[in-house]
Amino acid sequence: MKQRKVPMRKCTGCGEMKEKKQLVRVVKAPDETDENGAVIKSGEISVDLTGKKPGRGAYVCRSRECLRAARKARRFERAFSCKIPDDVYERLEQELDGE
């Protein structure tokens, strides 16, 4: 039987390539626009435990250290091209602890 290819992703915190199943996906939902294409509401940033939410994704290890490293280096802000409020990071830490 043919071996399936295992999807690999890079952790934004430590920079290591790991299997997709070992990482947590952080997603920025698509922006809401009106009929003219003007942005009404910016997309919400949340943890995607299923890996199937629509939007731009970035991956991080299941540890607080990697999340802190990604926050310190502003890697999520670069990945999503937007400013991320502190309360979003706090919510991400709580959700990672709750797993």
Task: Summarize the structure in words.
- Helix content is 27%, strand content 27%.
- It is α+β, with helices and mostly antiparallel strands and 99 residues long.
- It has one domain: YlxR-like (Hypothetical Cytosolic Protein, Chain: A), CATH 3.30.1230.10.
- The longest helix has 12 residues, at 86-97.
What tags apply to this protein structure?
27% helix; Hypothetical Cytosolic Protein, Chain: A; alpha+beta; 99 residues; two-stranded antiparallel ribbon
Summarize the structure.
The protein has 99 residues and is an alpha+beta fold.
Give the neighbour order of strands across the main sheet. Answer: 6-3-7
Rounded to the nearest angstrom, the distance between the terminal CA atoms is: 35 Å
The CATH homologous superfamily is named YlxR-like
Number of domains: 1
CATH topology: Hypothetical Cytosolic Protein, Chain: A
What is the makeup of the main sheet?
Answer: 3 strands, antiparallel
* Helix-strand pattern: EEEEEEEHHH
Mean pLDDT across residues = 88
List the uncertain runs.
Answer: none
Helix/strand layout:
Blueprint: E1 8-10, E2 17-19, E3 23-28, E4 32-33, E5 39-41, E6 45-48, E7 56-61, H1 64-72, H2 75-80, H3 86-97
Antiparallel strand pairs: 1-2, 3-6, 3-7, 4-5
